[in-house]
Amino acid sequence: MYSGVGVKMDFIRGASLRDGGKAIIALPSVTKRGESRIVPYLKQSAGVVTTHSHIHYVITENGIADLYGKSLKQRVKELVKIAYPNLQEWIDKEYHALVNGL
Q1: pLDDT single digits (tens) 9-39
Q2: Could you tell me which residues are beta bridge partners of residue 25?
Q3: Exposed / middle / buried, residue 15 (Cβ in 10 Å: 0-12, 13-18, 19+)
Q4: d(CA 70, CA 60)
Q5: Gap between the Cα atoms of 5 and 25, Å rounded
Q6: Measuring CA to CA, which residue among 40, 68, 67, 54 is closest to residue 8?
Q7: What angle, rounded to 10 degrees, do the helices at 72-82 and 88-101 form?
Q8: For residue 51, is pLDDT > 80?
Q9: What are residue 76's phi and psi, to 5 degrees?
């Protein structure tokens, strides 16, 4: 990595800290290659820019996940609901396998 995290975090943090502001991420549930953008875990060495505490809503073509103030388990439930329908069961199973395997 040659630079900082960019301006995404500035916008997310600014939106969440503004009076009445809400941080919203809108994205398609799958990539052009058909891979889920909502995943049960990150790939090795994947970078994370946005903190979970700043995100209020994640929106896909399948709905809206209200994440603000929720536990990790509640956030997973919300995100699975807006994932691509054919991948929801896989995401849920992989997440539970990861948690139960710890």
Answers
A1: 777 878 878 888 898 999 999 999 999 999 9
A2: 58
A3: middle
A4: 19
A5: 16
A6: 54
A7: 160
A8: no
A9: -60, -45
> Locate tokens 């209020």: which residue?
56
Q: Which amino acid is at 89?
A: E
Q: Residue type for 13, please?
A: R
3-state secondary structure the chain: CCCCCCCHHHHHHHHHHCCCCCCEEECCCECCCCCECCCCCCCCCCCCCCCHHHCCEEEECCEEEECCCCCHHHHHHHHHHHCCHHHHHHHHHHHHHHHHHC
**Which structure tokens are listed for 98?**
């990861």
**What tokens appear for 14 in the block?**
């600014």
Residue 17 CB partners (closer than 8 Å, separation 6+): none
Structure tokens at 6: 């960019």
